[in-house]
Amino acid sequence: MTQISILGCGWLGLPLAKALLENGFSVNGSTTSSEKLSVIENLGIQPFLIALESNNISGNIETFLEGSKTLIIDIPPKLRGNNKEDFVGKIKTVIPFIEKFAIENVLFISSTSVYGDDNSTVTEETEANPETESGRQLVQAEQLLQNNPNFKTTILRFGGLIGKDRHPIHFLAGRSNLENPEAPINLIHQDDCIGIILEILRQNSWNETFNAVTPFHPSRKEYYTQKAKDLNLVPPEFNYENPTFGKTNLSSKVEKVLGYSFTKTNL
What we know:
Elements lengths: L2 E5 L5 H10 L3 E6 L5 H6 L3 E4 L1 E2 L4 E2 L2 H5 L4 E4 L13 H14 L4 E7 L8 E3 L10 H14 L5 E7 L1 E3 L6 H4 L14 E3 H14 L5 E4 L7 H11 L16 E3 L2 H6 L10
Parallel strand pairs: 1-2, 1-6, 2-3, 6-7, 7-9, 8-13, 9-12, 10-11
Antiparallel strand pairs: 4-5
Helix pairs in contact: 4-5
């Protein structure tokens, strides 16, 4: 049975681990919350309490990685508020352990925030031009991993993540003066996130970069107004006084190279 290690069993990592178990893998899964260890273990995942810091790793990273050929890194940067972190430093800290335990493949979960909002159409060939600190650190982390010759790295850049328990309309409903009414949405459902990852693993598609955004791009105003009505919420109000900025992220490479068909197309 092939073993995979998932660094970060959070909103995406935990259901991904469950899907991997269902597909015949054994899974080592990490969390930074001791309260979550029993949840992970009860699902049949080998649990590990691991926390990355910019110059240290707490927890048994050696046993977590030992025996795995593939490591999935799904730990988004925490750069909001006052407790900002050195995300690049975290990745630098874990790389020597990836090398030591002969991990062959790394799948790094990144974000389309590495591209700028300049009203363009974005593909994997588009040069990264992040406008946020989170995006800048993600780009640096991507480069650190992909430039390392000791293992193969595939970068998976997701759009905005949604699922049955997560949708931005719950945050936007009833708000006013929202910017960029005509900017296209770039979202992807959790089910498709997991489906694309499983396809990458099945096809051994390494040393690649993929954008992963559902090919459904109505304007923010059109989409969130309708979504609010569907859920009996107060529609948000948008500001048309300022120019609209945004981008359309294309995922044609996922469809062509992996042969993947999105299952949640009408978000």
